[in-house]
Amino acid sequence: MNAAVTALLLTALVAANLPFLLERIFFVITPKDSHKALGWRALELIVLYFVVGGVGYMLQRRIGPVQHQNWEFYAVTACLFLVMAYPGFVYRYLWRR
Q1: From CA 2, how far away is CA 13, in angstroms rounded?
Q2: How many helices (H) and strands (E) does the chain have?
């Protein structure tokens, strides 16, 4: 069970930083001006949050019965996902010129 949690956290860390490290829209489409806007990066971040949440749900279902979650759980995990995205944001917008 610890390995599953560690793998999920590492997956979330990588997924949260991918929109800031790659220049393709949804990892497939190259933008016309070869610069992806912040709006696309935010949309990718939201989509990847739900993808990682789905992976977590599948892992929890394999381990045992799925716990019902209230809105507080999703608010905290969304904030945690944003905190995990901070290194990629700093690299893209604050550190790299």
Answers
A1: 17
A2: 4, 0
Q: Helix 38-63 and helix 71-84: axis angle, to 10°? A: 120
- C-alpha Rg value of the chain to the nearest Å: 15
CA distance 20 to 68: 32
Q: Which tens digit of pLDDT belongs to each residue from 68-92? A: 999 999 999 999 999 999 999 999 8
* CB of 76 closer than 8 Å to CB of 29: no
pTM of the model: 0.88
Q: Domain span at residue 28?
A: 3-95
- Return the percentage of the chain with pLDDT > 70, whole number: 97
Number of domains in the chain: 1
Please calculate the CA angle 70-57-75 and round it to the nearest 5 degrees. 35
- Pair of tokens at residue 6: 């560690």
Token digits of residue 62: 């394999």
